Amino acid sequence: MSLRFPAALVLSLVILFLIGPFLIIVAASFSAGDTLAFPPQGFSLKWIAKVFTVESFRQSFVTSMILAVGGTLVALALGVPAAYAMSRYRLPFAETVRTIVSAPVIVPGIIVGLALLRYVVVPMGVPITLALFLAHTALVLPYAVRVVSASLANLRSDIEEAAILLGSSRLGAFFDIVLPNIRGGILAAFILGFVTSFNQVPVSLFLSGPGVRTLPVDMLGYMEIVFDPSVAALSSLLAFLSMGIVLAAERFLGFSRYV
Amino acid sequence: MFHNRTEALLLALPAAAFAAIVFLVPVVVLLSESFRSPAGWSLAAYWTFFSEPLNQAVFWRTLKLGLQVTAVSAVIGYAAAFAIVSLPPGSKGRMVGLIMLPLMISPVARTYAWIVILGRTGIVNQALHGLGLTDAPLRILFSETAIFIGLLQLFLPLMIISLISALENLPRDVVPAARVLGANWLQIFWKVILPLTREGLVIGGTLVFTGSLTAYITPAILGGSKVLMLETLLYQRVTVANDFVSASVIALILVVMSFATNLLLKRIATARART
Questions:
Q1: Domain harbouring B204, CATH code
Q2: What value does the CA radius of gyration of chain A take, rounded to a whole number of Å?
Q3: What is the C-alpha separation between B77 and B202, in angstroms, rounded?
């Protein structure tokens, strides 16, 4: 069945509304003019080039990368065993554990950031960078547990039970049988966690100090002061980066099966 | 299924302890601060907070925008999801990809684009001026309208995706059957499609509603310092006035609203599973 006219019209308008603004940002980042405008005045790469020369962008990009990669890895190190316990064991208080572990997804990030600043950073003298790292890890933990749990649910548990009956240790069965089979799910969880952490703003708002800022928070601050197309250029670069990661994951792993 | 309880606890404990210490305890302490006063426990902070007209206005605006964005995204979402599920498989997949694409892009970038579109010299004002409809540029940016548009664009994909999976599970012959029996499109939607896709609507609605309530980036960029929502008000109270009491009151309001919406979702989902 092909689309009738009204349906095609609705769909085109929705796509225009969802994608259009992004295309405008991309176009604006190639502008030769000095202010953010559309249609762009002339064509140049100067704003793309400028992004790489802004010291604070470089610094906050590194911060965000470390948080997104490191925080997600730690979340996986915590989340994979927890997901395994919940799916393969008769875990006491399983519901409570599930609620605690997935709570960070329901509580707004700005509250987590403020709470950490007020009760952990200030009174205990914990460095802001560490608090930021812990907050991003907590934020990603629910996704890690959820995606890996889904992956474990799709894997028949009698395979590892068979391995144990045949003499493998429980740890050995996990590393030899379970882990290779949920590899895709773990990678999907990593990408989802990475994108979530990298784009996250509210949790990092209060957890910033001199020289410590995540990239999106830095961009928010920059655009309040300077109205040139460099934020647009940076936005396009980041968008292409994350689209590239997701497309590569989809191509090689069928990422969307897991999310 | 393994039965070793100690082993199970040892596996689950690190994650649970981490979430409890890093997240649960600080957040609960912050929330409890809103009930504390020099004389002991009290609701005084809430009284003070809500007796301020500005705070009241921000509270109602946040609620109103959340409901508006949810309602409009449901209407557009149904239309778009209908169109998408009736596409042939190949182009359906591509269309779903296009709808999901914005979710990969930083919300800061997505919101920033609206400045170019809605600003004083933005596309909308240029077009209106070019058509001779306005003499002076309209002030669209830094208003509730701008926030509404920004939130709708941010969260519409979530509604569409939820409704697509609901519509795909719709039995294939119910719509033709209703039509044969003489129902018009409005009746078909109201009596057949809506009840059968309720779960998808509730899931999408919860995501959109809680997302809008707890939005920070959109009101920060498109609302400016005057048109606040609860999260931007919280940020302002802390950074401008060092007012942690109001901040904890707002925090509790946000948490209660998110939890209530999620509980409602769970109830509707389980009620459906029982019938």
A1: 1.10.3720.10
A2: 22
A3: 12
Q: Is the ipTM of this complex over 0.85?
A: yes
Please say which residue of A13, A28, A44 terminates a domain.
Answer: A44
> Would you call A195 and B104 a contact, using CB atoms and an 8 Å cutoff?
yes
Tens of pLDDT, residues A137-163: 999 999 999 999 999 998 888 888 898
A164 contacts A170 by C-beta, under 8 angstroms:
yes
**Structural contact between residues A195 and A242, judged by C-beta atoms closer than 8 angstroms:** yes
Domain with A26, as residue range(s), is 1-44
Radius of gyration of chain B (CA): 23
- Widest CA span in chain B: 77
Last residue in a domain, options A44, A60, A76: A44
> Can you give the pTM of this predicted structure?
0.90
A171: its two tokens: 């740890």
- Using a 10 angstrom Cβ sphere, with 0-12 exposed, 13-18 middle and 19 or more buried, the burial of residue B266 is exposed
Does a structural domain hold residue B195? yes
Report residue A227: phi and psi, to 5°: -110, 50
- Is B27 domain-assigned? no
In chain A, whose CA is at the least distance from the CA of B100? A18
Mutate to test the interface with B, among A4, A5, A9, A11 (most CBs of B within 10 A): A11
